[in-house]
């Protein structure tokens, strides 16, 4: 291949990842016209267009979709060469792109990052906060290096099981003593995550199976915001155990929910090389997940948990 085309292919890859010439130009520290010129170089050289217009935006053409996987692998390998050379000179700071939902980031990523930076690990992080379904897609497509996801689908080839977590009902500390949280749905609103998220799927299954009839519903974009609503006295939610791992439960009633446990997994891009700095991060995640698992069984304090042991409780 003509080496002079490598910059053009790199620009094309960033355009595909961002879905915008303007956003690609911003990330590449170029002008939009300079990026467009690189795309035209490919078109002129091979007689094909890698992108097509859709409304005011663009998307990969059929040829662009066919080429995207090869381009991703090409520049992943280039990044691996750079990382190896950097390690040889002991001057390399590895950039690690990680995707996770808000509560998994707080429960597992945050303590690992704090420890790595305290120890002076040669790592730089780019964190994307999104739901688990999208995070897994980003890792599979090579747009992030690793993703921490919750899922109940079969284990993928590039996934590692970190732990299993149970779901819990949460509600403000209110109502009659001993009144089950789900019975309060007849007079208090139900908090729900967005449609398509793993947490929403679990909630919809429980609501349908138990034939619950909420008074009203409030849709929220994140587990963290759901916890904030409940702490301030509004609404009842269903949250995964890791969301409660570091939460102040003084204003919460908590009960185990009758749902199957859900896997928490580490999904890596297929070509990720386990260099020493990356191994430190991955092993740290596994350690945090193990610490969560080792905390079970525990008993919830006070009347909310009614003294019952629960597998995987935070």
Description:
This protein is of the alpha/beta class. It folds into 3 domains: 3-69, Arc Repressor Mutant, subunit A (Orthogonal Bundle); 86-163 and 263-294, D-Maltodextrin-Binding Protein, domain 2; 165-261 and 299-309, Periplasmic binding protein-like II (D-Maltodextrin-Binding Protein, domain 2, 3-Layer(aba) Sandwich). Helix content is 43%, strand content 22%. The protein contains 10 helices and 14 strands. It has helices at 6-18, 21-28, 32-46, 62-89, 102-118, 132-140, 198-210, 223-231, 276-294, 302-305, and strands at residues 51-54, 57-60, 94-100, 123-129, 146-151, 159-165, 167-172, 190-193, 217-220, 237-240, 252-256, 262-268, 298-299, 309-310. α1 crosses α3 and α5 crosses α9. It is globular. It starts with 5 loop residues before the first helix and ends with a strand. 33% of the residues are buried.
Summarize the structure.
The protein is an alpha/beta fold and 314 residues long. It has helices at residues 6-18, 21-28, 32-46, 62-89, 102-118, 132-140, 198-210, 223-231, 276-294, 302-305, and strands at residues 51-54, 57-60, 94-100, 123-129, 146-151, 159-165, 167-172, 190-193, 217-220, 237-240, 252-256, 262-268, 298-299, 309-310.
Q: What labels would you give this structure?
A:
single chain, 314 residues, alpha/beta, Arc Repressor Mutant, subunit A, D-Maltodextrin-Binding Protein, domain 2, 5-stranded mixed β-sheet, 3-stranded antiparallel β-sheet, 10 helices
By DSSP, the count of extended strands is 14
CATH fold type of the largest domain: D-Maltodextrin-Binding Protein, domain 2
- CATH architecture name of the largest domain: 3-Layer(aba) Sandwich
Q: In terms of structural class, how would the helical and strand content be classed?
A: alpha/beta
- State the order of secondary-structure elements, H for helix, E for strand: HHHEEHEHEHEEEEHEHEEEHEHE
How does the overall form come out from the CA principal axes?
A: globular
Task: Enumerate the spans where pLDDT stays under 50 for 5 or more consecutive residues.
Answer: 297-314
- CATH fourth-tier homologous superfamily of the largest domain: Periplasmic binding protein-like II
Give the integer mean of the pLDDT values: 83
Counted by DSSP, the helix tally is 10
State the domain count: 3
The top level CATH class name of the largest domain = Alpha Beta
The whole-angstrom Rg is 23 Å
The major beta sheet can be summarized as: 5 strands, mixed
Strand order of the largest sheet: 4-3-5-12-6
- Amino-to-carboxy terminus distance: 54 Å
Estimate the strand proportion.
15-25%
């Amino acid at each position: 291949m003509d080496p002079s085309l490598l910059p053009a292919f790199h620009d094309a890859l960033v355009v595909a990842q961002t879905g915008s010439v303007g956003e690609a130009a911003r990330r590449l520290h170029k002008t939009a016209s300079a990026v467009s010129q690189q795309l035209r170089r490919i078109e002129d050289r091979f007689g094909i267009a890698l992108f097509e217009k859709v409304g005011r935006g663009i998307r990969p053409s059929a040829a662009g979709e066919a080429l995207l996987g090869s381009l991703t692998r090409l520049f992943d390998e280039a990044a691996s060469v750079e990382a190896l050379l950097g390690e040889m000179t002991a001057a390399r700071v590895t950039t690690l792109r990680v995707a996770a939902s808000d509560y998994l980031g707080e429960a597992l990523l945050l303590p690992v990052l704090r420890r790595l930076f305290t120890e002076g690990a040669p790592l730089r992080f780019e964190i994307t906060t999104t739901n688990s379904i999208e995070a897994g897609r980003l890792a599979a497509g090579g747009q992030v290096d690793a993703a921490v996801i919750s899922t109940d689908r079969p284990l993928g080839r590039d996934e590692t099981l970190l732990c299993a977590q149970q779901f819990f009902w949460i509600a403000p500390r209110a109502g009659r003593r001993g009144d089950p949280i789900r019975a309060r749905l007849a007079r208090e609103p139900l908090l729900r995550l967005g449609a398509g998220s793993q947490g929403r799927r679990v909630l919809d299954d429980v609501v349908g199976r138990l034939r619950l009839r909420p008074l009203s519903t409030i849709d929220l974009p994140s587990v963290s915001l759901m916890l904030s609503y409940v702490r301030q006295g509004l609404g009842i939610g269903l949250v995964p155990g890791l969301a409660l791992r570091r939460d102040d439960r003084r204003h919460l009633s908590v009960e185990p929910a009758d749902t199957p446990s859900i896997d928490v997994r580490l999904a890596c891009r297929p070509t990720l090389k386990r260099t020493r700095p990356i191994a430190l991060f991955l092993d740290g995640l596994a350690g945090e997940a193990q610490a969560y698992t080792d905390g079970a069984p525990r008993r919830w304090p006070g009347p909310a948990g009614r003294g019952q042991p629960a597998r995987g409780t935070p």
